[in-house]
Design goal:
Strand order of the largest sheet: 3-2-1-4-5-6-7
Shape: globular
Number of helices: 9
CATH superfamily: NAD(P)-binding Rossmann-like Domain
Helix content: 40-55%
CATH class: Alpha Beta
Radius of gyration: 17 Å
Number of domains: 1
Length: about 260
């Protein structure tokens, strides 16, 4: 098999939470473009169906939209069942569902803090646990969790987000250890600033925008196609010896 062939995903099936927009949608499109059929899930069914149609039109692959709240395990179980009924298996899991809210620590509403932990950390665990059982039976899997550069560094007003993403990083490492003997790799993608809806507040404020750009050695924000390419690499059979890794795609922010 040639090196290029190892990156191809024909015959593979991916399940992607938070796949209807932002980084999740970019990764879903890249995975489909590499040849996989893809199930994307979101809490918003109309948005999910629209995204599935767009990715299907661009790639020619089958894209299954699924309504799923990652905070609710029974909803993930239902979505996974639908995916298995449609495609027969799941080879790749990407846990991209995530939220962020910004408050000073002493003013952070408890309900908002809990929601961020439940979506970002518990949602990741829920998806990994449920899809992981299927992968354990098949003795194969590629799991990509979504951490952040804020898994290891911090900035003000992100206490809940950093706590959740730090947890995702450690969860990834533990799952990689537990499932390595079953031919399942688990790696954590840690993005820096990308121009997505979750970061729109950053881009509207010139001072905040300058702060971010001043702290990125490459001097620019990430492009969606760049995270898509990384997802294809980690989801493919080009890197079966990489597991438990945290791969930063942050323009060099965490080098400082």
């Amino acid at each position: 098999m040639s090196v290029i062939d190892k990156f191809r995903l024909e015959g593979k099936v991916a399940f992607i939470t938070g796949g209807s927009k932002g980084l999740g949608k970019a990764m879903a499109e890249a995975i489909a473009e590499a040849g996989a059929n893809v199930a994307i899930s979101s809490r918003h069914p109309e948005e999910c169906a629209e995204a599935a149609g767009e990715i299907r039109d661009r790639t020619g692959k089958e894209i299954l939209p699924l309504k799923t709240d990652v905070k609710v395990p029974v909803e993930i179980e239902k979505a996974v069942k639908e995916c298995l009924e449609k495609f027969g298996k799941i080879d790749i899991l990407i846990t991209s569902a995530g939220i962020n809210k910004r408050y000073a620590a002493e003013e952070f509403p408890e309900e908002d803090f809990r929601e961020i932990i439940e979506v970002n950390l518990m949602g990741t665990w829920n998806a990994c646990k449920i899809v992981g059982k299927h992968m354990l039976q098949r003795k194969y899997g590629r799991i990509l969790t979504l951490g952040s550069m804020l898994s290891v560094v911090s900035i003000p007003q992100r206490s809940a987000y950093t706590a959740s993403k730090g947890g995702v990083l450690q969860l990834t490492r533990t799952l990689a250890l537990e499932w390595a003997e079953h031919n399942i790799t688990v790696n954590c993608i840690c993005p820096g600033p990308f121009h997505t809806a979750i970061n729109e507040q950053i881009f509207r404020n010139p001072e905040i925008r300058k702060f971010f750009l001043d702290n990125i050695p490459l001097g620019r924000f990430g492009k969606l196609e760049e995270i898509g390419a990384l997802a294809v690499f980690l989801a493919s059979d080009a890197c079966p010896y990489i597991t438990g890794a945290s791969i930063f795609i942050d323009g060099g922010w965490t080098l400082k």
